[in-house]
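hey m, so remember when u said the tokens were messed up on ur end? i reran from scratch. heres the input so u can diff it against urs
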Amino acid sequence: MLHLTTGRRNRLFLACTLCLLCWSAQASASEPSPEPEVPGLESDVVLPPGLWDDSDDSAAGSEVSELEASGLETNEEPQAESLDDDVVAPAPSTALAIPPPLDPPPLTEVSVMLDWYLSPQHAALLIADERELFEEQGLTLDLQSPADPDVALKLLVAEEVDLALTREPVLHLQVHAGEPLVRVGTLIETPLNAVVVTRQAAEQEDIAALAGLDYGFSTLEGKEIVAERLIPQSLRQTDSFKAPVNVHFDAVAAVVGGEAQVIADGFYTTLPQQLAPEGVDSRVIHYETIDIPRHDGLIVVANSHSLASKGPIWARFLTAVEQASHWMIENPEAAWALLVEHHPILDNPANEASWEALLRRLSLSPAAVNTRRYQAFEAYLAKRGIIEAPLPVSRLAIDPHTLTP
């Protein structure tokens, strides 16, 4: 039997007490602590209308019911779909396509009345039309030939056409007569007309000797400017004087028929070639030789009342004409081929022979105004007493590009 002293008993009691405390702490840590009781809400929760769709509740409830009926628990995770299954994409509700291109703006029609029948001197207009240069400027050309050359400017004054062709001397005379006309472009920058002397007069070198011959004319300037210059007033007052006759642009028939020995305004690039097969000799006397100033041979004229509204259109029109003129100068053979292909009536030996000479007279800046030239012609008319006083150039000719805003 073991006998313990008092000190040993006390130490043994303390050790047992510590063991009991450790065991009690471990047992308390292993048991879960009870969750605190949350008091229930004493009010109802009301959601705003539209925040929750009732159909979603009914749909969700029906799905849960179907799962419970099939013996599946609602908290079972869905199985992933097989990657091998074909997935059909839903069809788009709208068709995706490139929108159709916008229609180009409509072309502006420009009606142009020729000075007479179609001829190579109108080539700049014809080539610009065939090469679609007018369309590039938003224009379309309506080219018309007058039944009578005298009606072209009358139709323009009446605003029946947009533009008309004539010659610079006619413009001066018409504006002084009060007509609302103004030059907006130049197609041929030197005169295509000249005095053509025929038959026995062909050997005459003295200009004064031409006064007593029989004269024919086709144009206003031929009658009032050229014949006036060649036939002195003293001869006009004699009883034997024969007044110049209007040959109506048929100079060949007038000469061959004996009506005229001198054509005051013959087309010198073609008339001599047309007279030669008829056995008629001829020579050409240019206007500068008889002191008539050099002037524009073929011009584009507009009604001056239309400048404010149509000036930009005329500018685009002349831009196309300028492009055509430059192309003809650079490609003379191709230009002639294109011209006669689309206008076979121009394909004759006389026109072909004069083609190169005509090209040298084309205006390469058809919109530009030669102010000095118009001033000089006004001064000449005033000196001869044909007009009372010169007009400013701005009343006669303008560059339409200066009117473009």
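this time it looks ok to me. The longest helix spans residues 6-30. if urs says something different then somethings off w ur setup not the seq
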